[in-house]
Design brief:
Elements lengths: L2 E5 L2 E4 L4 E8 L4 E10 L6 E7 L4 E3 L7 E6 L4 E6 L8 E11 L2 E4 L3 E6 L1
Parallel strand pairs: 2-11
Antiparallel strand pairs: 1-3, 3-8, 4-5, 4-9, 5-6, 7-8, 9-10, 9-11
Length: about 120
């Protein structure tokens, strides 16, 4: 089992920026892909961005051009740089990891992002 811990959430004004971090820890593991998801009150959890082991990235249309997902393999950490934040970006953001070894999937506990008008 791999543990994921998010950090970096907080309250920002519309137009501001935040950078979320997700650190993976545990015994030896091999990452297939990492991603960020978010869930606003009363809404379904949705994909925000993913990055594969090969460095391929994918973004939700709503965040393209504003958010950037990246990783630091040496630190076993994935980041989400969020710029030009909008009130509709407010949600709990969850880190997701899919692993080749050990085979399976992990979720972080979530970090709150609040955006004021």
């Amino acid at each position: 089992q791999v543990q994921l811990v998010e950090s970096g959430g907080g309250l920002v004004q519309a137009g501001g920026s935040l950078r979320l971090s997700c650190a993976a820890s545990g015994s030896r593991f091999v990452i297939n892909a990492m991603g960020w998801y978010r869930q606003a009150p009363g809404k379904q959890r949705e994909l925000v961005a993913t990055i594969t082991s090969g460095g391929m990235t994918n973004y939700a249309d709503s965040v393209k051009g504003r958010f950037t997902i990246s990783r630091d393999n040496a630190k076993n950490t994935v980041y989400l740089q969020m710029n030009s934040l909008k009130p509709e970006d407010a949600a709990v953001y969850y880190c997701n990891g899919r692993f080749i070894f050990p085979r399976g999937e992990s979720w972080g506990q979530g970090t709150q992002v609040t955006v004021s008008s």
